[in-house]
Design goal:
This protein is an alpha+beta fold and 463 residues long. Helix content is 34%, strand content 19%. Bound molecules: flavin-adenine dinucleotide.
């Protein structure tokens, strides 16, 4: 372990190393580089001063106490798959890496709960639960690589959220290390519980700015044994979006309801050698689960065919392939200044209108666009891109992004459905929330973190 050479880090490192092994703290250039950013666009690059791997709650407490004593900003990090820059290092910060805290502490099938450390990978928990016929329902497309702690801190959504809700709906209780190193426990092991203010919900989605989540009690659901999957191709993306409302009117409840436009299908074909674009201009990928799946599927086919959709029932292998293709639609791409994937959500009744508006914006600003959406939730991921990194191209891209945000808000939507504000979306938050609401959030931040050491400059804009 190299020495940290810059004050106040010498004092910080000495304090940390009084409790942790030397191997748990690194200032090696490759570590500082690896853990400098997540997968969000980078607008203000900083390498951290050090990276610390906590292995226990006591380690986290020791690190937070050292940071408080030496006024060192801490960026808590799970797998670093966030796409809003929430885990980007900031000036002078230390990255607190929780991936080694990856033990499933308890699975209680009778109570239908699990207790986990924050670094447990979502997919690993689900693999363990599947043996018992249970699941942790929130399934961000990154579920094979992202941590439960990160899912909680971002209130992650996913494909199954159309039926089962987002991460907040699955979190019953949290263990949290506060900014002074105190450990608190919020919530309850029971499904119900209304004692006091709901601090558990406050921590969910707080992006590491209010405390460090060091343990979670989550609610489980039954892993469905009957699943039916439909691929419905439409002649245009607007009609596919209208299909979402048609399914709602048919009063069927898909567990997965994803929309992919023509350019997204072409990109998937290009990357994976599939033939999706030859089957139609836009796709609704629809899955039903549970004992009524076949009945719901029949009602859904009638509803989408009335709109001109071509529905095909997919066998389990093809269904899995299509869902995997959708989950991997980003490929290995990381957002950059010339390619930004958005995360707006609009009321479902506005989906058709919003998608048309996006296409018009892309044409007007001369940028490329593809749209995928967790359509059942009205949550869209339009990706705008330009070939060049020159100032004019990037300005066009940013103008399109700004317009897409303004339009989503005009239609009653939000600037982020599931990825969080992080660093990248700070500039848009005042467009959605009034100064009074922002001020309340700043006072909450001040109360939990008076020194401002927990992930500063993220989630809420400073005054
Ligand atoms: C291919 C791909 C697909 C994706 N699909 C989805 C999707 O479908 N739905 C979705 O919602 N997101 C998706 N994401 C975004 C990302 O995976 C999620 O935001 C995920 O929840 C982040 O988890 P993580 O472990 O990587 O957290 P990180 O990126 O490490 O951190 C995310 C934020 O949480 C904070 N944090 C992390 N752990 C803790 C903790 N224990 N205590 C306090 N704060 C903490 C960090 O400081 C940061 O602000 C996708 C990303 C990729 C790359």
């Amino acid at each position: 372990m190299a020495e940290i050479g810059i004050d106040p880090y010498q004092g910080f490192a000495a304090a940390v190393l009084a409790s942790l092994r030397g191997e748990q703290l690194s200032v090696a250039p490759e570590d500082l580089q690896t853990f400098a950013i997540d997968q969000g666009p980078v607008t203000d690059f900083h390498e951290p001063a050090a990276v610390v791997w906590a292995e226990s709650v006591a380690d986290v407490q020791a690190v937070v106490r050292a940071a408080a004593a030496h006024n060192v900003p801490l960026v808590t990090r799970g797998a670093g798959t966030g796409v809003s820059g929430g885990a980007h290092a900031t000036a002078g910060s230390v990255v607190l890496n929780l991936t080694r805290m990856n033990t499933i502490l308890e699975i209680n099938a009778a109570d239908e709960i699990a207790r986990v450390e924050p670094g447990v990978i979502n997919g690993d928990l689900n693999q363990a639960l599947a043996e018992l016929g249970l699941m942790f329902a929130p399934d961000p497309a990154s579920y094979k690589i992202s941590t439960i702690g990160g899912n909680i801190a971002t209130n992650a959504g996913g494909l199954r959220c159309a039926k089962y809700g987002v991460t907040r709906d699955a979190v019953l209780a949290l263990d949290v290390v506060l900014a002074d190193g105190t450990l608190i426990h919020t919530g309850h092991r029971t499904f119900k519980g209304v004692a006091g203010y709901d601090l558990t919900s406050l921590f969910v989605g707080s992006e590491g700015t209010l405390g460090v989540v060091v343990g979670a009690t989550v609610r489980l659901k039954y892993l469905p044994t009957i699943v039916r999957t439909l691929a419905v191709f439409f002649p245009d993306v607007q009609t596919a979006a209208a299909g979402v409302l048609a399914l709602g009117s048919a009063r069927v409840q898909p567990c997965i309801l994803e929309l992919l436009d023509g350019p997204s299908l072409q990109e998937l074909d290009f990357r994976n050698g599939s033939d999706l674009a030859s089957r139609g201009t836009a796709l609704l990928l629809i899955q039903f689960d549970g004992l009524a799946a076949a009945q719901e599927e029949a009602l859904a086919i009638a509803a989408v065919e009335e709109l001109g959709g071509t529905a095909s029932r997919e066998d389990p292998a093809e269904a899995q392939r299509l869902v995997d293709l959708r989950r991997n639609n980003r490929g290995l791409d990381v957002d950059a200044v010339n390619r930004v994937g958005e995360d707006v959500a609009v009321p479902r009744s506005q989906l058709v209108h919003y998608i048309s508006a996006l296409e018009e914006m892309a044409r007007r600003h001369g940028v490329d666009l593809n749209v995928i959406a967790h359509a059942g939730d009205g949550n869209l991921h339009p990706t705008f891109s330009v070939p060049g990194m020159d100032a004019i191209s990037v300005a066009s891209l940013n103008a399109a992004l700004d317009d897409s945000i303004a339009k989503a808000l005009e239609l009653g939507g939000t600037i982020t459905g599931e990825h969080g504000i992080g660093q990248y979306k700070l500039r848009w938050l005042p467009l959605e929330q009034s100064e009074q609401v922002l001020e309340i959030q700043r006072s909450i931040k001040d109360m939990f973190d008076p020194q401002g050491i927990l992930n500063p400059g993220k989630a809420i804009p400073t005054a």
